[in-house]
From TrEMBL, chain A:
Organism classification: Bacteria, Pseudomonadati, Pseudomonadota, Gammaproteobacteria, Oceanospirillales
Regions crossing the membrane: 49-70, 82-100, 106-124, 162-187, 207-234
Principal cellular location given in the protein's record: membrane
Entry's localization field: Cell membrane
Tagged with keyword Oxidoreductase: no
Name recorded for this polypeptide: ABC transporter permease
Topology versus the membrane: Multi-pass membrane protein
From TrEMBL, chain B:
Organism: Vreelandella vilamensis
EC number: 7.6.2.9
SMART domains per the UniProt record, alphabetical: AAA
Protein name: Quaternary amine transport ATP-binding protein
Known catalytic reactions: a quaternary ammonium(out) + ATP + H2O = a quaternary ammonium(in) + ADP + phosphate + H(+)
Primary site of residence: membrane
Signal sequence region: none
Alphabetized InterPro entries for the sequence: AAA+_ATPase, ABC_transporter-like_ATP-bd, ABC_transporter-like_CS, CBS_dom, CBS_dom_sf, Gly-betaine_transp_ATP-bd, P-loop_NTPase
Length: 243, 386
């Protein structure tokens, strides 16, 4: 087979590499090692998903109304400074947040969910706030001018037009959430972090990877799922993905 | 009918109080378009937006069809006033149909009624309902979007409309088309309209009345013809521009200054008769020849009539131009300049000659108002209340 370009050569190279990795992992028994961890992965993954689901949905339920309240004209005096506080809050490492919540709530699932909730809250609130603030003022004037009540304006004009930005916030927040859940193991909440951290401690790369790879895959799946929901929920006229 | 009674707006700014509108008193009779015009910051937009309380008045009252709106709930008030803004403000998340039917829905119309209304509105603005109703605003051109904007404002059939530079963001060619369409619609709809513009030509074209604002005050409020003919002060004069006499050409119809007396000859007349008639009427260059149905058939030149013998039918030239009674003076002037004529024969709808229009008559009609004003400065100029 003649190779016509560098790109073609690279493709062939990658295929060859994959093939030999496969051959090597079969012959060295790595695949069998991974399969050995499969029941653990299944059990911990359920815990992992559960932690994400709890903290994530709690964050969405709190963050979106919070963003809406902050974006109201009456709140304009305090909103900016409060958003600054939230922004500073984002810079605190999640590990520190988890440690703090452990010192108040003890160990186990509850402090972990709380810590993850705090870490997830901020991006969603910020995007809800900026999304709503970013709605074209002409739309707001038109909506007011034709006699919509403030609630009708919010639900028929503001939210639909800010929805894409709000969903972008949820995507970022929940993807980070999935990637942060392994830390929850450190305060005794389980999850795939159990394999990762134990693998590091035991200097067992296969164990570590059998925690890390499913975490990464989970993050990708969550991101794709939210993208799909956004694609379906954001009205066609304001959905760049459907334009 | 819209009546403003001492409407005042004072903005508190860090630099102190700014009076955006200072005791504005005016009345727009039912079915008329009133254009608010003036330089930016003159209070025209504030005045307009106080009517539907986008800007809350500091003092004063707004009456719509004779009723004081002060006690009215803001939402109810706005749902009964059509509102069109320069930025159009169609909701991008809704289809064209949803945009148009939004006010009827707010007013609680049933589904069949507002769906039918949407199609009716589309027909009115000359856009194909089946092709457009299910589309989104972003898929339409600017001109089409503003037509939809007008349709949305008219959907619930409000008696009053407020328009804030509605055609300002549309390119000049489309703007002229939309203006014409809108005037045609208005002839049937007969809405009472307040319209903010910064373009004096648009104001003259669209307005039944024009209100000129300056620094929060209403300087002059009169019909376009009065405004151009008798500007109240130097500010209004400069605002109207140096060519304001020419702008009036648009407003005056040939019918208003046509002289019914016109000497004509028939093809069967001799050139001697023609010459005699030319002298009788005191024409300088030529006389019009008409056929038996009194339609213009040609002109007989004075020099030909004097030097030649024979019948008119053998010695006429083509009629350079005729003008209809309902054409405006702008067209008449243009035809005169184009053909080097000082007069034009006028024809009615059937095409029969009914008089003539001369350059001198046009000049004196347009000039009369200015001379009257120069001679008498106390002349009351239209309905001004200060």
């Amino acid at each position: 087979m003649p190779i016509r370009s560098i790109k073609g050569a690279l493709k062939v190279l990658v295929l060859v590499a994959i093939f030999f990795t496969g051959v090597w992992s079969q012959s060295s028994g790595v695949i069998d090692d991974f399969i050995w961890y499969l029941p653990d992965v299944q059990y911990l993954m359920v815990q992992h998903i559960w932690l994400t689901l709890m903290s994530g949905s709690l964050a969405i339920v709190v963050a979106i109304p919070l963003g809406i309240v902050l974006s109201r004209p009456k709140m304009s005096g305090v909103a900016e400074s409060l958003m600054q506080v939230l922004n500073v809050g984002t810079t605190i490492p999640t590990l520190a947040v988890l440690a703090l919540s452990m010192s108040f709530l003890g160990i186990g699932t509850v402090p972990a969910v709380f810590g993850l909730f705090v870490a997830t809250l901020l991006p969603i609130t910020r995007n809800t706030y900026t999304g709503l603030k970013g709605v074209n003022p002409a739309l707001m004037e038109a909506a007011a001018g034709i006699g919509m009540s403030p609630m009708q304006r919010l639900f028929k004009v503001e939210l639909p037009n800010a929805l894409y930005v709000i969903f972008a916030g949820m995507r970022t927040a929940l993807t980070i959430n999935v990637g942060t859940v392994p830390l929850a193991f450190l305060i005794g909440a389980g999850g795939l972090g159990e394999l990762i951290f134990t693998g590091i401690d035991l200097y067992d790369p296969v164990m570590m990877l059998s925690g890390a790879i499913p975490t990464a895959l989970l993050a990708i799946v969550v991101d794709a799922l939210i993208a799909l929901v956004a694609f379906l929920l954001v009205p066609r006229g304001v959905n760049p993905a459907r334009a | 009918m819209i009546r403003l009674d001492n409407l005042t707006k004072v903005f508190d700014t860090p630099k102190g109080a700014v009076v955006a509108a200072d005791h504005i008193n005016m009345e727009v009779p039912e079915g008329e378009i009133c254009i608010l015009i003036g330089p930016s910051g003159c209070g025209k937009t504030s005045t307009l937006k106080m009517i539907n309380r986008i800007i809350k008045p500091t003092a004063g009252k707004v009456f719509i069809n004779g009723d004081d709106t002060t006690g009215l709930d803001t939402q109810t008030l706005r749902r009964n006033i059509g509102y069109v803004i320069q930025q159009i403000g169609l909701f991008p998340n809704m289809t064209i149909e949803e945009n148009i039917t939004i006010v009827p829905k707010l007013l609680g119309w049933d589904k069949a009624k507002y769906k039918a209304r949407a199609r009716e509105m589309m027909a009115m603005i000359a856009l194909e309902p089946d092709a457009f109703l299910k589309r989104f605003p972003s898929e339409l051109s600017g001109g089409q979007q503003q037509r939809i904007g007008v349709a949305r404002a008219l959907a619930a059939d409000p008696p009053v409309m407020l328009m804030d530079e509605p055609f300002g963001a549309i390119d000049p060619i489309n703007r002229a088309v939309i203006q014409d369409e809108f005037l045609k619609m208005q002839q049937e709809l007969n809405k009472t309209i307040m319209f903010v513009s910064h373009d004096i030509d648009e104001a003259i074209k669209m307005g039944d009345r024009i209100a000129v604002f300056r620094e929060g005050k209403l300087v002059q409020y009169s019909t376009p013809d009065d405004l151009l003919g008798a500007p109240k002060n130097a500010f209004v004069e400069s605002f109207l521009g140096e060519d304001r006499a020419l702008k009036r050409l648009n407003l005056v119809k040939v019918r208003e200054i046509v002289t019914n007396e016109i000497g004509t000859v028939m093809p069967s007349d001799t050139l001697e008769t023609a010459m005699a008639k030319i002298d009788d009427y005191g024409y300088q260059n030529a006389i019009l020849m008409v056929n038996e149905r009194k339609q213009p058939a040609g002109i007989i030149d004075r020099s030909v009539a004097r030097t030649t013998k024979g019948y008119c039918r053998d010695h006429f030239q083509a009629v350079p131009a005729v003008i209809g009674l309902d054409d405006d003076l702008r067209k008449a002037a243009s035809l005169m300049f184009a053909h080097g004529q000082t007069w034009l024969p006028c024809v009615n709808e059937e095409g029969t000659v009914c008089g003539q229009i001369t350059q001198r008559a046009m000049t004196s009609h347009l000039g009369a108002r200015y001379r009257a004003r120069q001679g008498d400065d106390r002349k009351p100029s239209a309905a001004i209340k200060e």
